[in-house]
# Entry
Amino acid sequence: MRVLVASHTYIVDLNCEKFRTLAQLEPDVEVTIVVPKRWRPGGVQNRIVETRPWQDGQFRVVPVSNFSQNNQGLLTFGLDVVKLLREFRPHIIQVEQGSKGLAYAQLITLNRLLGLKAKNLFFTWWNLPYELKFPVSLLEAYNLKNTHGAIPGNQDGADILRDRGYTGPIRVMPQLGIDESLFRPEPQPELAASLDLQPGEFVIGFVGRFVEEKGLFTLLKALGQLKSLEKPWKCLMLGRGPLQDILHAQAAELGIGDRMRWVESVPHDAVPRYINLMSTLVLPSETTYRFKALTSVGWKEQFGHVLIEAMACQVPVVGSDSGEIPFVIDDAGLVFPEGNAEALCDRLRQLIETPALHQDLGKRGYARAMERYTNRALAQETLDFYRELMT
# Structure
């Protein structure tokens, strides 16, 4: 089976691990990743990534000339993609730009014109309702009509595709997995000492952006209600963002400033060390979207990748019920109604005061992460989906 995947996501080598693993699962599987030759991450002015080709056995990354250097929906490829398609002749073409992507329409059309007879798939994170005007409505209708399989990253995305009229096969899974050799249980006594985290203290952790939708004001309110607990605890906040100064001030007002530990930013490969300092990781995301003028404005948690990273480190997780979080956690952690500080405080109190529950959820989360969310597990699930579509 020859698989061609097109996405700007894979300009980062680390993000390629799932598909590199997929190419190793069976000897008849070859994977070619098409990435734009030039990309401006996040639309940052004057910062352009020049991608490079590389190969590992049956897996390779091929940069292709591109139009639009910072917009997923407008990304399309130059004529060199035609030569690549003719030579590689894929059985599966997967474009990870959503159902309205121009690149997806382009590769659907080239698939037909070149007589490849490949199965067309797309990946999407989109999880908010929407309506479209012409001509984008026509573009999506064309794409969905010619889609043989869809991979939404969350259950809301699957429901929306059904609402949009797509009736074909769907498999819900995240775009990227976890590297279990990096995210694993590993004590960090020296790092703990450097942050004045004492042995026996319960450490409540957060990893992410300091922005409104991450529910950090709710987290601080919940922490303020834990002051009366006899068992000592601290909170480790790993990240940065526009709310940083406001959060510092609110922690002080709540009388918990001395319990807070702020770490602004660390390299990605160092994040597991900090997660391993935590007794629990909290993701208190809050939905902010509203429907206005045929479009969805706002945000809802699309997955919560840090949850599976913590699970892989055997750290119990607590999350709100925003978006995909309850589906990711399932019965391997605790869930609370988003924005409800009292409920979050109750979940934290349970973990602090019930060591048996804390230990059980740590083991459950680890087992769930290893079974469902490693790069190898996702690679196998992806290959199974491809086989299903081929037959």
Remarks:
- The domain at 2-177+375-390 is CATH 3.40.50.2000 (Rossmann fold).
